[in-house]
Amino acid sequence: MNIKILDSWLREFLETNASVKDIARELSLRAVSVDKVEKTANDYVYHVEVTTNRVDLMSHIGIAKEAAAALSEQGISTKFIPPKYNDVKNIGVSFPIEIINDPKLVNRIMAQVLEVKIGYSPEKIRRRLEESGIRSLNSVVDVTNYVMREVGHPSHVFDFDLLSTRKMDIRQSRPGETLTTLDGKKYRLTGGDIVAVDDNGEIIDLLGVMGTANSVVQENTKRIIFFLDNNNPKFIRRSSMSLGIRTEAAIINEKGIDPELMKDAFKRGIKLFEEIAEGKVISDSIDIYPNKSKKGHVTVSEDKISSVIGIDINSEKSADILRKLGFEVKIKNGKLDTKVPTLRPDVTTEEDIIEEVARIFGYHKLPSIIPSFLTNKTGTFADRFYFEKKSKNFFKYLGFTEIYNYSLVSEDLFDGPVDRAIKLKNPLSEDMMYLRNSLVPSLLTSVDENKGHDEIKIFEMSGVYEKRQGDLPKEILMLAGVVKRHDVSFFEVKGIIEALTLDLGIKKINFNKRSKSPGSDIYIDGKFLGYIEVLDGETINFELNFEEILNYANNKKTYKKLAKYPPIFEDITFVLDTSVLTEDVINEILNKSFLIKNVTLKDRFSNSRTFHITYQAEDRSLSSKDVFEIHKKIVDSIGEKFAAKVK
Amino acid sequence: MENELINLKNNALSLILEAEDEKELEEIKLKFLGRSGKLTQAIRKLPKIDIEKRKELGVLANEVKETIEASVDEKKKQLKKGILMSKIRKIDVTNPGIKPQIGHLHLVTQAISEITSIFEKIGFVRVRYPEVEWDWYAFEALNFPKDHPARDDWETFFIDGASHKKYGPMLLTPHTSSGQIREMSNAVKSSVSGEISPIKMLNIAKCYRRQSDVSHTPMFHQFEGLAIDKNLSIVNLKGVLDYFVKSYFGEKRVSRIRPYHFEFTEPSFEVDVSCGVCNGQGCSLCKDGWLELGGAGMVHPNVLKNTGIDPDKFNGFAFGWGVERALMMKDGLEIDDLRLIYSNKLEFLEQF
Question: What are the Aminoacyl-transfer RNA synthetases class-II family profile domain coordinates in residue numbering (chain B) (predicted)?
Fold first, then answer.
């Protein structure tokens, strides 16, 4: 919540030598954030951000109380001047409207009928309202806003003569009921709003949120009901959000304001009507108050206060601070026994009291000490984050740029039918409706968004989500990428994935032809790891299950003795049918002798493939006779098994 | 004969030594080793020599031949190197180098990496917890009242589907604080006779909120610190904040904490960092010299209780800040629209 506080208005309740700068600084450090101070023609305006638990600060008086505590703690002599409002006189004419209240909906109602003359407010009132962010309309409406800004409790006025009955039934709205708010907008209610209904069943107010057009004060209004209502905040929040009516009154009311404040607001209002709208009370006032606010009670020890804050603060000091904030405090045996002001229902625990003491004392006056304890967690060095980082760096140094796409996608970007998808109940838009199950569709969109680049190499590491019955979805970390270039090849991408897994300490992964689309499925230890998909002549994508990679990634190093005897190399070229898999040929060759240390595919043409073979023994230099014998075995076996000829 | 061969060798070697280019070397080679070369002619005389001496001289002749060949080759290499070096001496070193193509890690990844290193040095251990969460972990156990605005449809994304009997509706976690509950519940599960191991957690994850404008994206990242032990205090929280701010933003930047309100901490703070643009003097980018980093506080006793930790024995502090926000508060990274970070324009990503 934000509120604009005027310096001149604030000082009506503050006796201080503090400068504007002092006030802004001390409020920020010890009470409530002053985002900026704006200088106007005759005044300064503090832009204050009030946290939702401190709705008591949504007024000049509320801020003045805090400022007094904060400034005096800083050593700037300051006193809070409580407002002196006259009691409201009754004239012996009973209040003419019968109000039927529901205590579940409304905590307190005060009202009185006045005769008024509507005109412009005096310059000072108009200026103050405008500078604190409220449009000045006419003297009567201005009174309600002025009171809200000064005291902090919203209020309402009805045109008494527009009310067609003498009854006001306060109840929850029913589905289908309609109303027109005072700004002329029509609403169809879904039920559960707090409304006032007259004897004809017509809604004459949407309590706590906005008045209705049928009872609104107009230029020629002669008689008004000054009406203050303190409502159950849950109902206000629901109505205000669902109808989209975010008036200041609603924003304050939905936070739950102390009904004790109402009395001051009421007195202040009546006085102002008299002063600026020729107001004259023509009925007695009423005060329906079923839900009285109570003072809380909290006890906290001196030791606890010091231990949580981290330095010693004695009971007298704490009591002094709390009293400045309106708490009643008794010190007994090292304990503070506190009575909490009704304005502060947010204070209920020891910690709440400690916060009050600590903030006014000044967080900036506390030292900084890093806690030195360590946890007992082990094995956190080469954890998942280590391998994630390593893999991301791997792609970076291969020329890939990392992408972050939203996890929320449209139906188009979901891979497969959306009945399998995890769907949002309240999406922001159709584009962000489902949790994605693959990173690839979004990455391909990123490629499209970067037209005009000859070469695009991008990757993303992020979670995908798999629906599970009766449980949270499985969140699976995936690693996906796209390479787009006019001459990109499957083997380039395959090579990248092979190099990545090797770098992560994974010795072997397998590639099988993919049936769904051109490309390859990838397996690790017989389990599906991911795929490479050739989309067209210039675009290839891949996606790997990184959780599976993490199951195998390791930092293990194995030392093998360096060879003492030199290897012998040989290239053999076979004419092979294209259906024969290179991997099968290599495995077959490797099987032929333990003296074959390595076999690689060196070259390939349309129907021939050249294999580069390394022979090596650990205990002697191999002779050409040794090699020839193995060579013969290889040629025979490959010839027989794959119907191949040596070229 | 023996002398003749040795003379031939010396003669050839001195010529080779003085040769100035490859052509001259070829001529020298021809002069000695060619069909009518001097060495060739000398070798032709060998059959006339005494059989006893012939073998010895044959070996010598062969040695001379090899020496000349090797010297010619060596000299050729030297000449080539000389030419190359003289070319190199003339190059324009301001011509561009041949750079290998290197990609770019996303700004968010870079920030997460820095943040992790900073906290690891003071003993925080990184974890990751679910993004799709139960209400219990995201709100209820964090002491949010039932009717708190963050729990309604306007601020948090809910998943279409049935609620859990115990844990409530399924949602996208709006903050990494849900990880606090996970971490503490885990600590309680592995506790020994009511004694939990002390916690120093760093949870970095994607979070989701129902908003999109220049300073909000529906998905963003947070990093959450949680420390639980005996007798932790606001002074300790300040210690960690100051350490982080100096480490991440630089020694010149200072931090402060101000009163604030969160449901799951008490006391609660807002953490400010001095503005790097104006150095705390106040400018159009900051609030009177300060930039808001995010929230922090002492863990609320109800939160400890909800996870099964005895608040009379243990306490702690927590903080949760936006990764993107922290990034944009760094010197030189004053990005005017947060949504740009997730736009995936290569022109943007390749700047970093």
Answer: 115-329
Select the CATH number that applies to the domain covering A384-552 from these four: 3.30.1330.40, 1.20.1080.10, 3.40.109.10, 3.30.930.10: 3.30.930.10
Which residues, at least 6 apart from A283, have a Cβ–Cβ distance to it below 8 Å?
Answer: A91, A93, A94, A95, A96, A112, A113
Closest chain A residue to B212, measured at CA: A428
Q: What's the pLDDT tens digit per position in B99-128?
A: 999 999 999 999 999 999 999 999 999 999
Contact A351 B160 (CB under 8 A): no
State which CATH number among 1.20.1560.10, 3.40.50.11750, 3.30.460.10, 3.30.70.380 fits the domain covering A568-646. 3.30.70.380
Give residue-wise pLDDT tens across range B276-307: 888 888 888 888 889 999 999 999 999 999 99
Looking only at the bridges linking them, the beta strands covering B199-208 and B125-127 are parallel
d(CA B175, CA B209): 9
Cis peptide before B267 (omega within 30 of 0): yes
Q: Which of B160, B240, B261 sits opposite A51 (nearest CB)?
A: B261
Q: Which residues of A touch B219 (CB under 8 A)?
A: 406-408
> Which residues on chain A are in Cβ contact (under 8 Å) with B198?
373-376
Fold classification of A2-80 (topology level): Phenylalanyl-tRNA Synthetase; Chain B, domain 1 (3.30.56)
Q: Please tell me the distance in Å from A208's CA to the nearest CA on chain B.
A: 17
**Spatial separation of the C-alpha atoms in residues A279 and A637, rounded to whole Å:** 113
Nearest CA in chain B to A442: B344
Number of Cβ within a 10 Å radius of residue B194: 10
Strands B132-134 and A645-646: unpaired
> Cβ of B257 and A407 within 8 Å?
no
- Of the listed ranges A48-57, A184-193, B191-200, the least confidently predicted one is B191-200
> Are the Cβ atoms of B234 and A457 closer than 8 angstroms?
no
CATH topology of domain A297-365: Phenylalanyl-tRNA Synthetase; Chain B, domain 1 (3.30.56)
Contact B233 A403 (CB under 8 A): no
User: What average pLDDT does this structure show over A95-108?
Assistant: 97
Give the CA distances from residue A195 to residues A180, A244, B321, in Å, rounded to whole numbers and listed in that order. 12, 16, 41
Q: So what CATH class is B107-350?
A: alpha beta
> Are B323 and B113 within 8 A, CB to CB?
no
Nearest by CB to A366, from B238, B266, B288: name it: B238
pLDDT digits (tens, 9 = 90+) for A413-444: 999 999 999 999 999 999 999 999 999 999 99
pLDDT tens per residue across span A272-293:
999 999 999 999 999 999 999 9
Closest Cα in chain A, distance from residue B299 (Å): 10
Q: Break chain A into its structural domains and give their ranges.
A: 2-80, 98-288, 297-365, 384-552, 568-646
d(CA B301, CA A351): 8
A380 pLDDT more than 80 = no
Architecture of domain A98-288: 3-Layer(bba) Sandwich (3.50)
Distance CA B349, CA B210 (A): 25
* A352 annotated ligand binder: yes
Average pLDDT along chain B: 93
> Which pTM value belongs to this model?
0.86
Q: What is the mean pLDDT of residues B43-68?
A: 88
pLDDT, averaged across chain A: 95
pLDDT in tens, A485-542: 999 999 999 999 999 999 999 999 999 999 888 999 999 999 999 999 999 989 999 9
